Amino acid sequence: MTFYIKQHDTSPAILATLSDATGAAIDLTDATVRFHMRPIGKTTVVVDAAASIVTAATGAIRYDWVSADTAAIGSFQAEFEVTFPDSSIETFPNDSYVRIEIINDIA
Q1: CA 44 – CA 16 distance, rounded (Å)
Q2: What's the CA gap between 80 and 51, in Å, rounded?
Q3: Predicted local confidence at residue 107, as pLDDT
């Protein structure tokens, strides 16, 4: 999945549905979710912020951008880190990353 957004934009939000290897929805009841993003090929995280759970039972989440998140143009990798009620942590997707492309705006 590649998500495109223009520099300095804060909409649209990035939406995802978290699922396991069989495609079953991850139950996010009483869990917390964080959104992480870094430039491709770099180790420095440029976004580490809380994501919102839209529908816990179906694994639906969203991240609402702030202007600082999209200030730099470029290609980025992103992931969602879930902390479950038992304190276990799982990152989605767990076999790759969400690709984010922040492209230059005209004005």
Answers
A1: 23
A2: 8
A3: 81
